Protein backbone atom coordinates (compact mmCIF):
# COMPACT_ATOMS: atom_id res chain seq x y z
CA UNK A 1 0.00 0.00 0.00
CA UNK A 2 1.27 3.47 -0.93
CA UNK A 3 4.53 4.09 -2.70
CA UNK A 4 7.45 6.17 -1.45
CA UNK A 5 10.33 7.35 -3.60
CA UNK A 6 13.16 9.72 -2.79
CA UNK A 7 16.49 10.89 -4.18
CA UNK A 8 19.46 12.93 -3.04
CA UNK A 9 22.51 13.37 -5.25
CA UNK A 10 23.91 15.40 -8.13
CA UNK A 11 21.14 14.93 -10.72
CA UNK A 12 17.93 16.93 -11.07
CA UNK A 13 15.52 15.20 -8.71
CA UNK A 14 12.08 15.98 -10.15
CA UNK A 15 12.16 13.71 -13.26
CA UNK A 16 13.57 10.88 -11.15
CA UNK A 17 10.78 11.28 -8.60
CA UNK A 18 8.01 11.22 -11.19
CA UNK A 19 9.45 8.18 -12.94
CA UNK A 20 9.91 6.45 -9.59
CA UNK A 21 6.26 7.07 -8.77
CA UNK A 22 5.17 5.62 -12.12
CA UNK A 23 7.04 2.43 -11.29
CA UNK A 24 5.37 2.31 -7.86
CA UNK A 25 1.86 3.22 -9.03
CA UNK A 26 0.67 -0.36 -8.52
CA UNK A 27 1.03 0.30 -4.77
CA UNK A 28 -1.64 3.02 -4.87
CA UNK A 29 -3.04 5.50 -7.33
CA UNK A 30 -5.60 7.61 -5.45
CA UNK A 31 -3.37 10.70 -5.36
CA UNK A 32 0.28 11.68 -5.63
CA UNK A 33 2.70 14.40 -4.67
CA UNK A 34 6.33 15.54 -4.54
CA UNK A 35 8.36 17.83 -2.32
CA UNK A 36 11.59 19.46 -3.47
CA UNK A 37 13.44 21.80 -1.08
CA UNK A 38 13.20 25.40 -2.18
CA UNK A 39 10.09 24.72 -4.26
CA UNK A 40 7.56 23.35 -1.80
CA UNK A 41 5.13 20.56 -2.57
CA UNK A 42 3.03 19.79 -5.62
CA UNK A 43 0.07 17.41 -5.26
CA UNK A 44 -2.77 16.04 -7.36
CA UNK A 45 -5.70 13.69 -6.86
CA UNK A 46 -5.88 10.67 -9.15
CA UNK A 47 -3.10 8.90 -11.05
CA UNK A 48 0.52 10.00 -11.51
CA UNK A 49 -0.32 11.58 -14.87
CA UNK A 50 -2.41 14.20 -13.07
CA UNK A 51 0.60 15.17 -10.98
CA UNK A 52 2.93 15.21 -14.00
CA UNK A 53 0.55 17.57 -15.85
CA UNK A 54 0.81 20.09 -13.01
CA UNK A 55 4.59 20.25 -13.46
CA UNK A 56 4.87 22.35 -16.63
CA UNK A 57 8.67 22.58 -16.62
CA UNK A 58 11.52 20.80 -14.89
CA UNK A 59 11.99 21.90 -11.30
CA UNK A 60 15.56 22.52 -10.21
CA UNK A 61 16.91 20.84 -7.10
CA UNK A 62 18.93 17.71 -6.49
CA UNK A 63 16.87 16.16 -3.71
CA UNK A 64 13.23 15.36 -3.10
CA UNK A 65 10.64 12.92 -1.80
CA UNK A 66 7.52 11.66 -3.54
CA UNK A 67 4.45 9.57 -2.78
CA UNK A 68 1.61 7.75 -4.51
CA UNK A 69 -1.29 7.02 -2.20
CA UNK A 70 -3.74 4.23 -1.45
CA UNK A 71 -6.22 5.99 0.84
CA UNK A 72 -6.70 4.76 4.40
CA UNK A 73 -7.43 7.82 6.56
CA UNK A 74 -9.20 10.52 4.56
CA UNK A 75 -10.67 10.55 1.07
CA UNK A 76 -8.39 10.45 -2.01
CA UNK A 77 -8.24 14.22 -2.47
CA UNK A 78 -5.48 16.68 -3.23
CA UNK A 79 -5.70 18.01 0.32
CA UNK A 80 -5.07 14.54 1.74
CA UNK A 81 -2.28 13.72 -0.70
CA UNK A 82 1.29 13.41 0.59
CA UNK A 83 3.77 14.97 1.32
CA UNK A 84 2.57 16.64 4.54
CA UNK A 85 4.45 19.28 6.50
CA UNK A 86 4.90 20.41 10.07
CA UNK A 87 3.50 23.77 11.28
CA UNK A 88 6.57 25.66 10.07
CA UNK A 89 6.21 24.34 6.51
CA UNK A 90 9.91 23.48 6.57
CA UNK A 91 9.75 19.76 7.42
CA UNK A 92 7.96 17.40 5.00
CA UNK A 93 7.22 13.70 5.19
CA UNK A 94 5.80 10.89 3.09
CA UNK A 95 4.37 7.84 4.83
CA UNK A 96 3.22 4.30 4.11
CA UNK A 97 1.30 2.60 6.92
CA UNK A 98 -1.22 3.46 9.62
CA UNK A 99 -0.72 5.49 12.81
CA UNK A 100 -3.15 3.76 15.16
CA UNK A 101 -3.16 6.42 17.90
CA UNK A 102 -3.34 9.38 15.54
CA UNK A 103 -6.62 10.66 17.02
CA UNK A 104 -5.28 11.06 20.55
CA UNK A 105 -2.04 12.54 19.18
CA UNK A 106 -4.01 14.98 17.06
CA UNK A 107 -6.14 16.06 20.03
CA UNK A 108 -3.04 16.64 22.14
CA UNK A 109 -1.39 18.70 19.41
CA UNK A 110 -4.54 20.76 18.90
CA UNK A 111 -4.57 21.64 22.60
CA UNK A 112 -1.09 23.10 22.15
CA UNK A 113 -2.33 25.28 19.27
CA UNK A 114 -1.34 23.18 16.27
CA UNK A 115 -3.85 23.18 13.41
CA UNK A 116 -4.55 20.62 10.69
CA UNK A 117 -5.57 20.90 7.04
CA UNK A 118 -6.17 17.25 6.09
CA UNK A 119 -7.94 14.18 7.47
CA UNK A 120 -4.83 11.99 7.37
CA UNK A 121 -2.88 10.27 10.10
CA UNK A 122 0.27 11.26 8.20
CA UNK A 123 -0.24 14.98 8.80
CA UNK A 124 -0.49 14.19 12.51
CA UNK A 125 2.90 12.50 12.32
CA UNK A 126 4.39 15.45 10.44
CA UNK A 127 3.08 17.93 13.03
CA UNK A 128 4.26 15.67 15.85
CA UNK A 129 7.80 15.61 14.45
CA UNK A 130 7.67 19.39 14.14
CA UNK A 131 6.61 19.73 17.78
CA UNK A 132 9.82 17.96 18.87
CA UNK A 133 12.09 19.83 16.44
CA UNK A 134 14.35 22.24 18.30
CA UNK A 135 17.15 22.22 15.76
CA UNK A 136 18.01 18.51 15.66
CA UNK A 137 15.62 16.92 13.16
CA UNK A 138 17.14 13.45 13.62
CA UNK A 139 16.34 13.54 17.33
CA UNK A 140 12.88 15.00 16.65
CA UNK A 141 12.00 12.11 14.34
CA UNK A 142 13.19 9.51 16.84
CA UNK A 143 11.34 11.16 19.74
CA UNK A 144 8.11 11.45 17.76
CA UNK A 145 8.18 7.83 16.70
CA UNK A 146 8.64 6.66 20.27
CA UNK A 147 5.13 7.91 21.12
CA UNK A 148 3.55 6.54 17.95
CA UNK A 149 1.67 3.24 17.74
CA UNK A 150 1.20 1.63 14.36
CA UNK A 151 3.10 0.82 11.19
CA UNK A 152 5.14 3.14 9.06
CA UNK A 153 7.73 3.56 6.42
CA UNK A 154 8.57 7.25 6.24
CA UNK A 155 10.94 9.60 4.46
CA UNK A 156 11.58 13.06 5.96
CA UNK A 157 13.19 16.02 4.18
CA UNK A 158 13.57 19.62 5.34
CA UNK A 159 14.41 23.06 4.01
CA UNK A 160 17.19 23.38 6.61
CA UNK A 161 18.95 20.15 5.53
CA UNK A 162 18.04 19.70 1.86
CA UNK A 163 20.86 17.26 1.17
CA UNK A 164 19.82 14.49 3.56
CA UNK A 165 16.72 12.33 3.77
CA UNK A 166 15.77 10.64 7.03
CA UNK A 167 14.20 7.24 6.44
CA UNK A 168 12.53 5.06 9.08
CA UNK A 169 10.88 1.66 8.94
CA UNK A 170 8.44 -0.02 11.32
CA UNK A 171 6.26 -2.66 9.68
CA UNK A 172 6.12 -1.07 6.21
CA UNK A 173 8.82 -1.91 3.65
CA UNK A 174 11.57 0.57 2.88
CA UNK A 175 14.73 -0.04 0.84
CA UNK A 176 17.72 2.19 0.12
CA UNK A 177 19.27 2.30 -3.35
CA UNK A 178 22.99 3.00 -3.53
CA UNK A 179 23.85 4.77 -6.79
CA UNK A 180 26.90 6.30 -8.46
CA UNK A 181 25.55 9.85 -8.62
CA UNK A 182 23.37 9.83 -5.56
CA UNK A 183 21.25 7.60 -3.36
CA UNK A 184 17.59 6.62 -3.34
CA UNK A 185 14.81 5.45 -1.06
CA UNK A 186 11.85 3.40 -2.25
CA UNK A 187 8.99 1.25 -0.97
CA UNK A 188 9.99 -1.45 -3.45
CA UNK A 189 13.32 -2.48 -4.94
CA UNK A 190 11.73 -2.75 -8.42
CA UNK A 191 11.52 1.05 -8.63
CA UNK A 192 15.30 1.28 -8.18
CA UNK A 193 16.27 -0.97 -11.08
CA UNK A 194 16.59 1.91 -13.54
CA UNK A 195 19.29 3.43 -11.30
CA UNK A 196 21.05 0.72 -9.31
CA UNK A 197 21.02 -2.93 -8.30
CA UNK A 198 22.78 -2.25 -4.98
CA UNK A 199 20.23 -1.99 -2.18
CA UNK A 200 20.00 -1.97 1.60
CA UNK A 201 16.86 -3.43 3.17
CA UNK A 202 15.90 -1.74 6.42
CA UNK A 203 14.65 -3.69 9.43
CA UNK A 204 11.91 -2.58 11.79
CA UNK A 205 13.25 0.15 14.05
CA UNK A 206 16.01 1.22 11.64
CA UNK A 207 16.57 4.95 11.14
CA UNK A 208 18.67 5.74 8.07
CA UNK A 209 20.06 9.03 6.83
CA UNK A 210 20.98 9.12 3.15
CA UNK A 211 23.06 11.80 1.47
CA UNK A 212 24.62 11.97 -1.97
CA UNK A 213 27.81 10.48 -0.50
CA UNK A 214 26.33 7.51 1.36
CA UNK A 215 24.12 6.36 4.19
CA UNK A 216 24.18 5.87 7.94
CA UNK A 217 21.86 3.67 10.00
CA UNK A 218 20.99 3.80 13.70
CA UNK A 219 18.17 2.39 15.84
CA UNK A 220 15.26 4.42 17.16
CA UNK A 221 17.34 4.83 20.32
CA UNK A 222 20.36 6.14 18.41
CA UNK A 223 22.55 3.03 18.48
CA UNK A 224 24.70 2.50 15.36
CA UNK A 225 24.02 -0.37 12.96
CA UNK A 226 26.04 -1.78 10.08
CA UNK A 227 24.30 -2.98 6.91
CA UNK A 228 26.01 -4.11 3.71
CA UNK A 229 24.30 -3.55 0.33
CA UNK A 230 22.79 -6.55 -1.46
CA UNK A 231 22.30 -7.14 -5.20
CA UNK A 232 18.84 -7.19 -6.82
CA UNK A 233 18.53 -10.22 -9.10
CA UNK A 234 15.94 -8.68 -11.47
CA UNK A 235 16.71 -6.33 -14.38
CA UNK A 236 14.86 -3.31 -15.76
CA UNK A 237 13.48 -5.23 -18.75
CA UNK A 238 11.54 -7.51 -16.42
CA UNK A 239 9.30 -4.62 -15.29
CA UNK A 240 8.56 -3.27 -18.78
CA UNK A 241 5.54 -4.25 -20.89
CA UNK A 242 7.61 -5.58 -23.82
CA UNK A 243 4.97 -4.64 -26.40
CA UNK A 244 1.92 -5.97 -24.53
CA UNK A 245 -1.05 -3.67 -23.99
CA UNK A 246 -1.14 -4.44 -20.28
CA UNK A 247 1.17 -5.81 -17.61
CA UNK A 248 -1.58 -8.30 -16.73
CA UNK A 249 -1.45 -9.91 -20.17
CA UNK A 250 2.36 -9.81 -20.23
CA UNK A 251 2.53 -11.57 -16.87
CA UNK A 252 0.04 -14.25 -17.93
CA UNK A 253 2.04 -14.86 -21.10
CA UNK A 254 5.19 -15.22 -18.98
CA UNK A 255 3.72 -18.20 -17.10
CA UNK A 256 5.72 -20.89 -18.96
CA UNK A 257 8.95 -19.04 -18.21
CA UNK A 258 7.80 -18.53 -14.61
CA UNK A 259 7.32 -22.28 -14.15
CA UNK A 260 10.75 -22.92 -15.67
CA UNK A 261 12.35 -20.39 -13.32
CA UNK A 262 10.56 -21.87 -10.30
CA UNK A 263 11.74 -25.44 -11.00
CA UNK A 264 15.18 -24.66 -12.47
CA UNK A 265 17.87 -26.59 -10.61
CA UNK A 266 15.32 -27.97 -8.16
CA UNK A 267 14.36 -31.28 -9.78
CA UNK A 268 16.26 -34.56 -9.87
CA UNK A 269 13.88 -36.31 -12.25
CA UNK A 270 15.67 -39.65 -12.46
CA UNK A 271 15.51 -39.99 -8.66
CA UNK A 272 12.04 -38.53 -8.31
CA UNK A 273 13.26 -35.90 -5.88
CA UNK A 274 13.22 -32.15 -5.37
CA UNK A 275 16.11 -30.00 -4.13
CA UNK A 276 15.17 -26.85 -2.25
CA UNK A 277 18.30 -25.21 -0.92
CA UNK A 278 16.38 -22.89 1.37
CA UNK A 279 14.91 -25.88 3.23
CA UNK A 280 17.97 -28.15 3.36
CA UNK A 281 19.05 -27.11 6.85
CA UNK A 282 15.60 -27.82 8.32
CA UNK A 283 14.66 -30.85 6.18
CA UNK A 284 15.04 -33.46 8.96
CA UNK A 285 12.90 -31.30 11.25
CA UNK A 286 10.39 -30.60 8.48
CA UNK A 287 10.07 -34.26 7.52
CA UNK A 288 9.35 -35.16 11.14
CA UNK A 289 6.58 -32.64 11.86
CA UNK A 290 3.05 -33.85 12.55
CA UNK A 291 1.19 -30.85 11.11
CA UNK A 292 1.85 -27.90 8.80
CA UNK A 293 -0.01 -24.61 9.16
CA UNK A 294 -0.12 -22.52 5.98
CA UNK A 295 -0.85 -18.83 6.62
CA UNK A 296 -1.62 -16.46 3.75
CA UNK A 297 -4.04 -13.85 2.40
CA UNK A 298 -5.93 -13.45 -0.88
CA UNK A 299 -4.65 -15.46 -3.84
CA UNK A 300 -1.80 -16.85 -1.75
CA UNK A 301 -4.37 -18.40 0.60
CA UNK A 302 -6.00 -20.17 -2.35
CA UNK A 303 -2.58 -21.42 -3.40
CA UNK A 304 -2.26 -22.74 0.14
CA UNK A 305 -5.59 -24.56 -0.18
CA UNK A 306 -4.34 -26.31 -3.33
CA UNK A 307 -1.07 -27.08 -1.54
CA UNK A 308 -3.03 -28.64 1.33
CA UNK A 309 -4.56 -31.23 -1.02
CA UNK A 310 -1.16 -31.94 -2.58
CA UNK A 311 0.78 -32.37 0.65
CA UNK A 312 -1.88 -34.41 2.41
CA UNK A 313 -2.35 -36.80 -0.52
CA UNK A 314 1.25 -37.31 -1.60
CA UNK A 315 3.24 -36.60 1.55
CA UNK A 316 0.75 -37.85 4.15
CA UNK A 317 1.17 -34.71 6.25
CA UNK A 318 -1.93 -32.99 7.75
CA UNK A 319 -2.18 -29.34 6.66
CA UNK A 320 -4.29 -26.47 7.98
CA UNK A 321 -4.72 -23.31 5.89
CA UNK A 322 -5.30 -20.11 7.83
CA UNK A 323 -6.08 -16.56 6.74
CA UNK A 324 -3.39 -14.31 8.14
CA UNK A 325 -5.96 -11.66 9.07
CA UNK A 326 -7.70 -14.22 11.32
CA UNK A 327 -4.78 -16.32 12.53
CA UNK A 328 -2.95 -13.41 14.09
CA UNK A 329 -5.90 -12.42 16.28
CA UNK A 330 -7.33 -15.76 17.43
CA UNK A 331 -6.20 -18.15 20.11
CA UNK A 332 -3.97 -20.74 18.46
CA UNK A 333 -3.30 -24.07 20.11
CA UNK A 334 -0.73 -25.67 17.80
CA UNK A 335 0.34 -29.27 17.89
CA UNK A 336 3.65 -29.40 19.72
CA UNK A 337 5.36 -30.67 16.58
CA UNK A 338 4.02 -28.20 14.02
CA UNK A 339 5.53 -25.81 11.52
CA UNK A 340 4.13 -22.60 10.04
CA UNK A 341 4.52 -21.71 6.36
CA UNK A 342 3.82 -18.11 5.34
CA UNK A 343 2.95 -17.66 1.65
CA UNK A 344 3.15 -14.17 0.15
CA UNK A 345 4.32 -12.74 -3.16
CA UNK A 346 5.69 -9.51 -1.70
CA UNK A 347 7.04 -10.95 1.53
CA UNK A 348 5.60 -7.85 3.22
CA UNK A 349 1.88 -8.63 3.62
CA UNK A 350 1.08 -7.14 7.04
CA UNK A 351 -1.25 -9.85 8.38
CA UNK A 352 0.99 -12.66 7.12
CA UNK A 353 4.05 -11.02 8.64
CA UNK A 354 2.27 -10.65 11.98
CA UNK A 355 1.25 -14.32 11.77
CA UNK A 356 4.79 -15.56 11.22
CA UNK A 357 5.92 -13.52 14.20
CA UNK A 358 3.12 -15.10 16.23
CA UNK A 359 4.38 -18.50 15.08
CA UNK A 360 7.83 -17.62 16.38
CA UNK A 361 6.35 -16.60 19.72
CA UNK A 362 4.64 -20.01 19.86
CA UNK A 363 7.98 -21.71 19.31
CA UNK A 364 7.13 -23.07 15.86
CA UNK A 365 9.48 -23.73 12.98
CA UNK A 366 8.67 -20.86 10.60
CA UNK A 367 8.98 -21.10 6.84
CA UNK A 368 8.41 -18.59 4.06
CA UNK A 369 7.35 -18.94 0.44
CA UNK A 370 8.06 -15.52 -1.07
CA UNK A 371 8.91 -13.96 -4.39
CA UNK A 372 10.93 -10.94 -3.27
CA UNK A 373 14.48 -11.56 -2.15
CA UNK A 374 15.33 -9.42 0.87
CA UNK A 375 11.69 -8.95 1.91
CA UNK A 376 10.84 -8.97 5.61
CA UNK A 377 9.31 -12.46 5.72
CA UNK A 378 12.23 -13.82 3.69
CA UNK A 379 14.58 -12.48 6.34
CA UNK A 380 12.56 -13.36 9.43
CA UNK A 381 11.53 -16.94 8.58
CA UNK A 382 13.76 -19.76 9.81
CA UNK A 383 13.94 -21.17 6.27
CA UNK A 384 12.05 -20.92 3.02
CA UNK A 385 11.51 -21.05 -0.72
CA UNK A 386 11.96 -18.25 -3.24
CA UNK A 387 9.50 -18.37 -6.12
CA UNK A 388 11.76 -16.71 -8.73
CA UNK A 389 8.67 -15.49 -10.58
CA UNK A 390 10.22 -12.10 -11.30
CA UNK A 391 8.46 -8.80 -10.58
CA UNK A 392 4.68 -8.78 -10.88
CA UNK A 393 3.41 -5.27 -11.60
CA UNK A 394 -0.29 -5.78 -12.32
CA UNK A 395 -2.43 -5.69 -9.18
CA UNK A 396 -4.11 -9.05 -9.88
CA UNK A 397 -1.72 -11.91 -9.19
CA UNK A 398 -1.26 -14.35 -12.07
CA UNK A 399 2.25 -15.64 -12.66
CA UNK A 400 3.12 -15.32 -8.95
CA UNK A 401 0.10 -17.50 -8.10
CA UNK A 402 1.25 -20.06 -10.68
CA UNK A 403 4.73 -19.99 -9.15
CA UNK A 404 3.28 -20.57 -5.68
CA UNK A 405 1.38 -23.63 -6.94
CA UNK A 406 4.54 -24.91 -8.62
CA UNK A 407 6.54 -24.38 -5.42
CA UNK A 408 3.91 -26.36 -3.50
CA UNK A 409 4.44 -29.30 -5.89
CA UNK A 410 8.19 -29.08 -5.25
CA UNK A 411 7.62 -28.93 -1.52
CA UNK A 412 5.23 -31.88 -1.70
CA UNK A 413 7.83 -33.90 -3.59
CA UNK A 414 10.57 -32.91 -1.15
CA UNK A 415 8.62 -33.83 1.98
CA UNK A 416 6.83 -36.76 0.37
CA UNK A 417 10.04 -38.61 -0.51
CA UNK A 418 11.18 -38.18 3.09
CA UNK A 419 7.87 -39.56 4.38
CA UNK A 420 7.43 -42.63 2.20
CA UNK A 421 6.43 -41.46 -1.30
CA UNK A 422 7.83 -44.08 -3.68
CA UNK A 423 10.57 -43.31 -6.18
CA UNK A 424 8.19 -44.34 -8.98
CA UNK A 425 5.57 -41.83 -7.87
CA UNK A 426 8.27 -39.22 -7.34
CA UNK A 427 9.55 -39.69 -10.88
CA UNK A 428 6.02 -39.30 -12.25
CA UNK A 429 5.54 -36.01 -10.39
CA UNK A 430 8.99 -34.68 -11.34
CA UNK A 431 8.40 -35.60 -14.98
CA UNK A 432 5.00 -33.89 -14.93
CA UNK A 433 6.59 -30.72 -13.55
CA UNK A 434 9.28 -30.80 -16.21
CA UNK A 435 6.70 -30.96 -19.01
CA UNK A 436 4.44 -28.30 -17.51
CA UNK A 437 5.89 -25.21 -19.27
CA UNK A 438 5.13 -26.69 -22.69
CA UNK A 439 1.58 -27.58 -21.63
CA UNK A 440 1.11 -23.99 -20.42
CA UNK A 441 2.29 -22.65 -23.80
CA UNK A 442 -0.34 -24.82 -25.47
CA UNK A 443 -3.09 -23.11 -23.43
CA UNK A 444 -1.72 -19.63 -24.11
CA UNK A 445 -1.87 -20.36 -27.83
CA UNK A 446 -5.69 -20.54 -27.48
CA UNK A 447 -6.04 -17.00 -26.11
CA UNK A 448 -8.17 -15.85 -29.07
CA UNK A 449 -10.71 -18.58 -28.38
CA UNK A 450 -10.74 -17.62 -24.70
CA UNK A 451 -11.23 -14.01 -25.74
CA UNK A 452 -14.30 -14.90 -27.84
CA UNK A 453 -15.88 -16.78 -24.95
CA UNK A 454 -15.04 -13.96 -22.54
CA UNK A 455 -16.67 -11.34 -24.75
CA UNK A 456 -19.81 -13.50 -24.94
CA UNK A 457 -20.26 -13.17 -21.17
CA UNK A 458 -18.82 -9.68 -20.65
CA UNK A 459 -22.21 -8.16 -19.85
CA UNK A 460 -23.11 -10.66 -17.14
CA UNK A 461 -23.95 -9.13 -13.80
CA UNK A 462 -23.24 -12.29 -11.78
CA UNK A 463 -21.18 -15.45 -12.21
CA UNK A 464 -20.45 -18.57 -10.20
CA UNK A 465 -17.34 -20.78 -10.20
CA UNK A 466 -17.44 -24.40 -9.06
CA UNK A 467 -14.88 -27.18 -8.69
CA UNK A 468 -13.95 -30.12 -6.49
CA UNK A 469 -10.82 -31.34 -4.75
CA UNK A 470 -7.84 -29.13 -5.70
CA UNK A 471 -10.11 -27.38 -8.17
CA UNK A 472 -12.41 -26.05 -5.46
CA UNK A 473 -9.62 -23.63 -4.49
CA UNK A 474 -9.01 -22.84 -8.18
CA UNK A 475 -12.71 -21.93 -8.43
CA UNK A 476 -12.22 -19.40 -5.63
CA UNK A 477 -9.15 -17.98 -7.35
CA UNK A 478 -10.99 -17.69 -10.68
CA UNK A 479 -13.84 -15.91 -8.94
CA UNK A 480 -11.40 -13.52 -7.25
CA UNK A 481 -9.73 -12.66 -10.57
CA UNK A 482 -13.09 -11.85 -12.12
CA UNK A 483 -14.04 -9.60 -9.21
CA UNK A 484 -10.69 -7.83 -9.19
CA UNK A 485 -10.40 -7.19 -12.92
CA UNK A 486 -14.02 -6.80 -14.12
CA UNK A 487 -16.05 -5.78 -11.01
CA UNK A 488 -18.57 -8.50 -11.88
CA UNK A 489 -20.17 -10.08 -8.82
CA UNK A 490 -18.76 -13.61 -8.61
CA UNK A 491 -19.33 -16.47 -6.19
CA UNK A 492 -17.25 -19.62 -5.75
CA UNK A 493 -18.17 -22.95 -4.21
CA UNK A 494 -17.05 -26.52 -3.98
CA UNK A 495 -19.28 -28.35 -6.45
CA UNK A 496 -20.93 -30.48 -3.77
CA UNK A 497 -22.10 -27.36 -1.92
CA UNK A 498 -24.40 -26.17 -4.71
CA UNK A 499 -27.49 -27.87 -3.37
CA UNK A 500 -26.82 -26.56 0.14
CA UNK A 501 -27.99 -23.09 -0.82
CA UNK A 502 -26.11 -21.41 -3.70
CA UNK A 503 -28.14 -23.14 -6.40
CA UNK A 504 -31.07 -20.91 -5.40
CA UNK A 505 -29.36 -17.99 -7.18
CA UNK A 506 -29.07 -19.67 -10.56
CA UNK A 507 -31.14 -18.79 -13.61
CA UNK A 508 -30.57 -18.04 -17.29
CA UNK A 509 -28.76 -14.81 -16.41
CA UNK A 510 -26.28 -16.37 -13.97
CA UNK A 511 -23.41 -18.08 -15.90
CA UNK A 512 -21.43 -20.80 -14.13
CA UNK A 513 -17.77 -21.60 -14.78
CA UNK A 514 -17.24 -25.29 -14.03
CA UNK A 515 -13.77 -26.75 -13.52
CA UNK A 516 -14.19 -30.31 -14.78
CA UNK A 517 -10.86 -31.96 -15.64
CA UNK A 518 -10.99 -35.71 -16.18
CA UNK A 519 -9.91 -36.74 -12.69
CA UNK A 520 -11.19 -38.78 -9.73
CA UNK A 521 -14.20 -36.49 -9.17
CA UNK A 522 -15.10 -36.03 -12.84
CA UNK A 523 -18.43 -37.86 -12.60
CA UNK A 524 -19.40 -35.85 -9.53
CA UNK A 525 -18.69 -32.62 -11.40
CA UNK A 526 -20.78 -33.81 -14.36
CA UNK A 527 -23.67 -34.30 -11.92
CA UNK A 528 -23.16 -30.76 -10.61
CA UNK A 529 -23.20 -29.40 -14.15
CA UNK A 530 -26.46 -31.24 -14.83
CA UNK A 531 -27.94 -29.60 -11.73
CA UNK A 532 -26.87 -26.20 -13.02
CA UNK A 533 -28.27 -26.81 -16.51
CA UNK A 534 -31.60 -27.89 -15.02
CA UNK A 535 -31.87 -24.31 -13.68
CA UNK A 536 -31.19 -22.89 -17.18
CA UNK A 537 -27.89 -21.30 -16.18
CA UNK A 538 -25.26 -21.12 -18.96
CA UNK A 539 -22.14 -23.20 -18.26
CA UNK A 540 -18.55 -22.53 -19.34
CA UNK A 541 -16.46 -25.65 -18.74
CA UNK A 542 -12.71 -25.92 -18.24
CA UNK A 543 -12.13 -29.50 -19.41
CA UNK A 544 -9.28 -31.74 -20.50
CA UNK A 545 -8.49 -32.37 -24.15
CA UNK A 546 -10.25 -35.41 -25.59
CA UNK A 547 -13.35 -35.02 -23.43
CA UNK A 548 -16.10 -35.29 -26.06
CA UNK A 549 -18.87 -35.81 -23.53
CA UNK A 550 -18.60 -32.37 -21.96
CA UNK A 551 -19.46 -30.38 -25.09
CA UNK A 552 -22.90 -32.03 -25.22
CA UNK A 553 -24.01 -30.68 -21.86
CA UNK A 554 -22.41 -27.21 -21.56
CA UNK A 555 -22.60 -24.01 -23.55
CA UNK A 556 -18.88 -23.36 -24.01
CA UNK A 557 -15.72 -25.39 -23.42
CA UNK A 558 -12.15 -24.23 -22.91
CA UNK A 559 -9.79 -27.19 -23.19
CA UNK A 560 -6.55 -27.75 -21.33
CA UNK A 561 -3.98 -30.56 -21.72
CA UNK A 562 -4.38 -33.62 -19.50
CA UNK A 563 -1.46 -33.94 -17.10
CA UNK A 564 -0.65 -35.61 -13.78
CA UNK A 565 -3.39 -34.72 -11.22
CA UNK A 566 -0.96 -32.91 -8.92
CA UNK A 567 -0.13 -30.31 -11.59
CA UNK A 568 -3.55 -30.18 -13.27
CA UNK A 569 -4.77 -27.18 -11.21
CA UNK A 570 -1.74 -25.18 -12.35
CA UNK A 571 -2.98 -25.44 -15.93
CA UNK A 572 -6.66 -25.03 -15.04
CA UNK A 573 -6.21 -21.54 -13.63
CA UNK A 574 -4.59 -20.11 -16.79
CA UNK A 575 -7.79 -19.89 -18.89
CA UNK A 576 -9.55 -18.34 -15.88
CA UNK A 577 -6.92 -15.59 -15.75
CA UNK A 578 -7.26 -14.91 -19.48
CA UNK A 579 -11.07 -15.05 -19.20
CA UNK A 580 -11.05 -12.30 -16.57
CA UNK A 581 -8.47 -10.27 -18.50
CA UNK A 582 -10.44 -10.26 -21.75
CA UNK A 583 -13.71 -9.40 -20.03
CA UNK A 584 -12.03 -6.47 -18.29
CA UNK A 585 -10.54 -5.20 -21.54
CA UNK A 586 -13.86 -5.58 -23.38
CA UNK A 587 -15.52 -3.47 -20.67
CA UNK A 588 -12.92 -0.73 -21.15
CA UNK A 589 -11.48 -1.10 -17.64
CA UNK A 590 -7.94 -0.50 -16.46
CA UNK A 591 -7.11 -4.15 -15.83
CA UNK A 592 -3.67 -3.35 -14.40
CA UNK A 593 -5.03 -0.89 -11.84
CA UNK A 594 -8.43 -2.07 -10.53
CA UNK A 595 -10.26 0.46 -8.39
CA UNK A 596 -9.76 0.44 -4.62
CA UNK A 597 -6.90 -2.11 -4.76
CA UNK A 598 -3.15 -2.03 -4.27
CA UNK A 599 -0.52 -4.68 -4.90
CA UNK A 600 1.22 -5.09 -1.58
CA UNK A 601 -1.16 -4.98 1.40
CA UNK A 602 1.22 -3.58 4.00
CA UNK A 603 -1.45 -1.98 6.20
CA UNK A 604 -3.54 -3.88 8.71
Question: Topology of this structure?
Answer:
Blueprint: E1 3-9, H1 13-23, E2 31-36, E3 40-45, H2 48-54, E4 63-69, E5 84-85, E6 91-99, H3 102-111, H4 121-132, H5 137-145, E7 150-158, E8 165-170, E9 175-178, E10 182-186, E11 198-201, E12 206-210, E13 215-219, E14 224-225, E15 230-231, H6 247-253, H7 255-263, E16 267-268, E17 273-274, H8 283-287, E18 291-296, H9 299-315, E19 319-323, H10 324-327, E20 338-344, H11 350-361, E21 365-370, H12 376-380, E22 383-386, H13 399-418, H14 423-444, H15 447-456, E23 462-467, H16 470-486, E24 489-494, E25 512-515, H17 522-533, E26 539-544, E27 556-560, H18 568-586
Parallel strand pairs: 18-19, 18-20, 20-21, 21-22, 23-24, 23-25, 25-26, 26-27
Antiparallel strand pairs: 1-4, 1-10, 2-3, 2-4, 5-6, 6-7, 7-8, 8-12, 9-10, 9-11, 11-15, 12-13, 13-14, 16-17
Helix pairs in contact: 3-4, 4-5, 7-13, 7-14, 9-13, 9-16, 13-14, 15-18, 16-18
Question: What is the averaged pLDDT score?
Answer: 93
Strand content: 15-25%
Going by CATH, the homologous superfamily of the largest domain would be Aminohydrolase, N-terminal nucleophile (Ntn) domain
Quickly name the level 1 CATH class of the largest domain: Alpha Beta
This entry's quaternary arrangement is single chain
Indicate the CATH topology of the largest domain.
Answer: Glutamine Phosphoribosylpyrophosphate, subunit 1, domain 1
Low-confidence stretches: none
In whole angstroms, how far apart are the ends? 10 Å
Strand order of the largest sheet: 3-2-4-1-10-9-11-15
Return the domain count: 3
Q: Count of DSSP helices?
A: 18
Radius of gyration: 25 Å
The CATH architecture of the largest domain = 4-Layer Sandwich
Given helix and strand content, the structural type is alpha/beta
The largest sheet is: 8 strands, antiparallel
Inertia-based shape: globular
Number of β-strand runs: 27
Assign a percent range to the helix content: 25-40%
Amino acid sequence: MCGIFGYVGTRTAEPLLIEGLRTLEYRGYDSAGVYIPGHGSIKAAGPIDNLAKKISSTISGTSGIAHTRWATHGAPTELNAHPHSDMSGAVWIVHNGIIENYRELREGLQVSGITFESDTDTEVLAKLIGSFNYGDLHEAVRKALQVVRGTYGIAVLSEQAPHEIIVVRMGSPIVLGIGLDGNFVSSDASALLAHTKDVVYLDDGDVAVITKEGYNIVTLHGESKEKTPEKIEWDIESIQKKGYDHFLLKEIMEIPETIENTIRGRLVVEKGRAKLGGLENVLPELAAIDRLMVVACGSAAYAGQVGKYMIEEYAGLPVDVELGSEFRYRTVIPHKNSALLAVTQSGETADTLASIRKGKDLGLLTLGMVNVVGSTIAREADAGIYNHAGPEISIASTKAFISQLTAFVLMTLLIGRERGLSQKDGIEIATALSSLPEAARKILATTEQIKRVAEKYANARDMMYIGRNTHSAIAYEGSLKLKEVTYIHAEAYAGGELKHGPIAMLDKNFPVVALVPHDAVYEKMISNIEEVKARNAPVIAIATEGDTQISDIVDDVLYIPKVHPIVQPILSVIPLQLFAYHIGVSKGLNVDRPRNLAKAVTVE
